[in-house]
Amino acid sequence: DIQMTQSPSTLSASVGDRVTITCRASQSISSWLAWYQQKPGKAPKLLIYKASSLESGVPSRFSGSGSGTEFTLTISSLQPDDFATYYCQHYNSWTFGQGTKVEIK
Amino acid sequence: QVQLVESGGGVVQPGRSLRLSCVASGFIFSTYAMHWVRQTPGKGLEWVAVISYDGTNKYYADSVKGRFTISRDNSENTLYLQMNSLRAEDTAVYYCPRSLGGNYFDAFAIWGQGTMVTVSS
User: What span, in angstroms and rounded, lies between the C-alpha atoms of A50 and A63?
Assistant: First the structure.
């Protein structure tokens, strides 16, 4: 089974910071990776699919990169609305990472 | 607009059954694969099951295989999850996300608000 591991588990940052979250797959998954944002009490929201494709309506400060086993989600300038938990997912096996909580520093 | 509404959650004793429903609107339900995903309170996301657009193909997580059954009624735009032999570890919020495209190997583009299932004596 493919395992997805995110780092860090928690990230403290300030508004305006550039933030990077990493997701590693236990074996190559090509570019079959998605990123989701989840706020407390809400359903996840798709941000990025196919590793780097921005979902419609998602702000351009979000970007994704990588292929194979290592992927990153970058928020170029953190906004107050971005404090949330982020999950990566290998959607060919439907496996999620454990999540990264972005909190206020 | 595109919408998914889950229902059927509640408190149930261990070993009992429960059926969840997910009603879709705003898109052609019969052309999309559909999933069930759950989230234990305060924890991460766990994929549970998927069904192809026409209901012919179904896959399950090992943790629910043999106990849960996913099905759909395309004439009613409704997805179901029949949960039998429930355990305490099945306690979670259950979501029914829709795939981005029709394929079940695709990102989860649309999510409902979720329905809470609590398994407790």
Answer: 11
